[in-house]
Each structure stands twice: as structure tokens, then as C-alpha cells.
Design goal:
49% helix, globular, 17 helices, Cytochrome p450, iron ion binding, alpha+beta, Cytochrome_P450_Monoox, 469 residues, heme, five-stranded mixed beta sheet, monooxygenase activity
Length: 469
């Protein structure tokens, strides 16, 4: 059982809320229905069998793809045989035009040296130095929301937009501090416009269409890509000219980074590509984890009360500090459970570089391998009552008893998310600051629609009423 603050106990269980989820088709879809579904929302094309079998082979226009859900097979792909797999063509076509050849999209030697160069930036002590900026941004959001909530019956907001703005503010402060102004609203819109095009890229890749093929929204995505790359390249150039001495932001650290084995440094394009990767992945994924956490808490007020009590007990009624962020186990468990039910990155796709045997499952060179993280996190053989929200799943003893590869919000193996520690500290800090002061209630009758655009978003935002606690 999860340890709760001594003066707060979970409320008795009533009827369980109906939570937003993907309803999978009972049988595999025919080719054209499959293609239409992929364009609308790729997750909806996964058949029900993916949620209960260890692996599954999908066929589309003569091409086979392997889905792996069993933890032993996932471990083989992501760890034991990691060098036998590369980033898939669909991911490269979807993201490389915007992110270049940075840590997220590169493979082989180029990925390895960038990872080695950037790794010191995300060490625990460095992340800890960023936590005060995370708390300060969360407090500014709290104060703005409290001002609106103090009038009448509170104020309605889109918590998804609010979290995007808050995490973007943190990214700008910790990654670009002192390196010139950035139009946050335009960058955020550019990211959204670009990601919106990715489902078409998935579909056209499946059809083996050339990369230049036009599709609805392509011109908007191209404009967004050009703006984002030009803006980050401008900032990288300014950062190099202004110097990095005495600065602790990510841009300065990337400009100063060296591969410890070769001494190689990043040029402005490398810095810009990696900054855009961290800006995009860093604020979008954490904002979505928080959005879904607030959604779940609105259906489970007893958990919201436990977070508020935990924060009060840890701080003794005083301001939240970096030390306190490390001492909020239940708050962290809520974030981890939110990322189980709604993983911000719901799928990982690889391609086999050579013939591989995955514990008796033969894989031919060139075969696309899908690790459907959303389905793994709700898999009938891996989780007890997988559709139920239960932060106790992430109590230490429960984590030890579970296979490491049943839970993959940050992927695993050599390519595990380099910003995992940053994201978790940020999410815990923001949730603690806001829940301590405010209550969040979903607009009555709202059932969010899940939409995959690389990340897992609520299709129409997340309308919530905010009141003072």
C-alpha cells in the first residue's frame, strides 16, 4: 500500500469513473479503412489483440510489421539487441525535417557522440540547479489562476494550454536564459502546426509514397518547420557570439559541450537541432503528463487531497523548495500513473538492420518493429485492472515486483529519454505548487478524445474550472 499523510485517508471507493481511452477494433482493419484511421488517429488502428497477446504481426499492402508487447521481447529490442535496430523510416520522415540530425533522430556514431556530449547536462546535480526556476514558473501560473479563481464560482481554463505555457516558460528559462527574446506563442503554435502533419506522413510512408508528396496541411507544416529551425539557429548563433562564461542554461552547455572520447564540439546547426529537440520534446511531453494528471485527479478528488496534504506535511506550511520536490513520493506516483494510462509518447518504432531472433520470434532485416507503449501500459497480462487509476502501482515494493519493461514512458535501453530526470522533477514541482493552492474540476460531461500526433494529446483541449483550495 502507498503511505499517505497521517491526517488524510483515501475516500471510500464509489462507482468508478469512465475514463478516456482508445476503443480498439475487434479485428484488424481492411487496408483502406486502416489507412483512413491512421490519418485520423494512428492509435485507433491497433486491433484489440495488441492489448492481450505477447506479439502480433500486421500486414499492409504486402509489408509485414511486428508489434512486440511482452517485456522480454521489448528488452531484446531496446537493450539486448539495440544495435540491431535503427530509428524507423516513418519517424525520420516525420521528425527529421524539423529536428535535423539531433539526438532524437540520429543513429549510429552521430547519435553516440551527441549523446555523450549532452549527457553531463542532465546529471542529477545539474537538474537540481534548474528546480528553483521550475518552482518559480509554477508559482506564477498559480498566482494567475488564483486571481481568476477568486471571482464568483471560479474560472474555466484549458489546462492543456496552461500547462503548455508553463512548461514552455521553464524551457525558455532553463535552456535559453539570457540568449535573446523568443516568441513563445509563435514557437508553440509552430510546434503544434508541424506535429499536426505527422499522421499524413505515417500514412504516406505506409504507401511508400515519395517524401515530396503533397498532403493537406503540408504548406502550413513547412512554414512552421522553417520558422522553428531559423529561430533556433538564430539563437544558437547569438549564444555563440555572446559567449557562455558563467551561464547555466542548456544552450550555453550545448555550445560548450565536448564529446569526452574525441573532443568533438557541436556547430551552430547541431546546437540548434538539439535545442529544438529539447524545446519540442521537453515542454510538450511534460505538459501532456500534467494535463492527463489533472484530468485523472478531477475524477479522483481523494488523490488530489492526498497530494495537497503531502505538500503541506513536507513543507511545514512554508514555501516549496528543491529539497521538498525530492520528498513527495505520492505526488510522484500520481505523475507516473498518469503516464501509464496516458503516455505522452505512446509508441516507439524501430527497423531491423539485420535478421534477428527475439526469443524465438524471427525478424527479417528491414522489418518495422512497433512497441505500442499505450497498449503495453494497458496490457491484460501485465497490469491488474489496467483501466483503473491507482498511484499505488508505483509504490517502491510494487515497482520492484513488476518487470522493468512493462512500463516505458521514457523508453528504455541506450536511447532512454535523456531528459527523464528533468521532466519528472518539473512535473512534480508544478503539480505540487498548483494542487496545494487550487482545485481543478473537469467541465461536466467532458470525455476527452485521445489523439496521437507523435505525442498523445486531448483532441479538443481539457476544459477545467479552477477554484481556491
Amino acid at each position: 500500500m502507498t503511505a499517505h499523510p497521517s491526517h488524510v485517508r483515501p475516500a471510500p471507493e464509489g462507482p468508478r469513473p469512465v475514463l478516456a481511452r482508445i476503443t480498439p477494433p475487434a479485428r484488424p482493419l481492411g487496408p483502406w479503412r486502416f489507412l483512413r484511421t491512421v490519418v485520423r488517429n494512428p492509435l485507433e488502428a491497433w486491433p484489440e489483440t495488441i492489448y492481450r497477446e505477447p506479439h502480433y504481426t500486421s500486414e499492409f499492402l504486402g509489408t509485414s510489421s511486428l508489434f512486440v508487447m511482452a517485456p522480454n521481447l521489448i528488452r531484446r529490442v531496446m537493450v539486448d539487441e539495440a544495435d540491431a535496430f535503427e530509428k524507423s523510416e516513418v519517424l525520420r520522415r516525420a521528425l527529421s525535417p524539423a529536428l535535423g540530425d539531433a539526438i532524437l533522430t540520429a543513429d549510429g556514431a552521430r547519435w553516440r557522440w551527441q549523446r555523450r556530449a549532452a549527457a553531463p547536462i542532465f546529471r542529477a546535480e545539474r537538474i537540481r540547479s534548474f528546480v528553483p526556476a521550475m518552482i518559480a514558473a509554477a508559482e506564477r501560473t498559480r498566482d494567475a489562476l488564483a486571481a481568476g479563481a477568486s471571482t464568483g464560482n471560479g474560472a474555466e481554463i484549458d489546462i492543456a494550454q496552461t500547462m503548455m505555457r508553463t512548461t514552455f516558460e521553464i524551457i525558455v528559462e532553463t535552456m535559453l536564459s539570457g540568449h535573446g527574446r523568443i516568441d513563445a506563442a509563435r514557437v508553440e503554435q509552430g510546434i503544434t502546426d508541424y506535429l499536426e502533419s505527422t499522421s499524413w506522413v505515417f500514412a504516406l510512408t505506409l504507401l511508400r509514397a515519395p517524401a515530396w508528396m503533397p498532403f493537406p496541411g503540408r504548406s502550413k507544416a513547412e512554414r512552421a518547420k522553417s520558422y522553428l529551425r531559423d529561430e533556433l539557429l538564430r539563437l544558437a548563433g547569438e549564444g555563440r557570439r555572446n559567449g557562455t562564461e558563467g551561464r547555466n542554461d542548456l544552450m550555453s552547455l550545448l555550445l560548450a559541450a565536448r564529446d569526452p572520447e574525441t573532443g568533438q564540439a557541436m556547430d551552430d546547426r547541431d546546437v540548434a537541432d538539439n535545442l529544438l529537440t529539447f524545446v519540442t520534446a521537453g515542454h510538450e511531453t511534460t505538459a501532456l503528463a500534467l494535463t492527463w494528471a489533472f484530468y485523472l485527479l478531477s475524477h479522483h478528488p481523494e488523490s488530489e487531497a492526498l497530494i495537497a496534504a503531502e505538500v503541506e506535511a513536507a513543507t511545514g506550511g512554508g514555501p516549496l523548495t528543491a529539497d521538498h520536490v525530492d520528498a513527495l513520493p505520492y505526488t510522484r506516483q500520481v505523475i507516473l500513473e498518469a503516464m501509464r494510462l496516458y503516455p505522452p509518447v505512446p509508441v516507439v518504432v524501430r527497423a531491423a538492420l539485420r535478421d534477428v531472433d527475439l526469443d524465438g520470434v524471427p525478424v527479417k532485416a528491414g522489418t518495422p518493429i512497433t512497441i505500442p507503449i499505450y497498449a503495453v501500459h494497458r496490457h491484460a497480462t501485465l497490469w491488474d485492472e489496467p483501466e483503473r487509476f491507482d498511484p499505488a502501482r508505483f509504490a517502491p515494493e510494487a515497482v520492484k515486483a513488476r518487470d522493468r519493461y512493462a512500463y516505458l514512458p521514457f523508453a528504455a535501453g541506450p536511447r532512454i529519454c535523456i531528459g527523464m530526470g528533468f521532466a519528472l522533477s518539473e512535473a512534480v514541482a508544478i503539480l505540487a505548487v498548483l494542487v496545494r493552492a487550487l482545485r481543478f474540476s473537469l467541465r461536466p460531461g467532458t470525455l476527452p478524445v485521445l489523439k496521437q500526433r507523435i505525442t498523445l494529446r486531448p483532441a479538443d483541449g481539457m476544459p477545467m474550472r479552477v477554484t481556491l483550495r
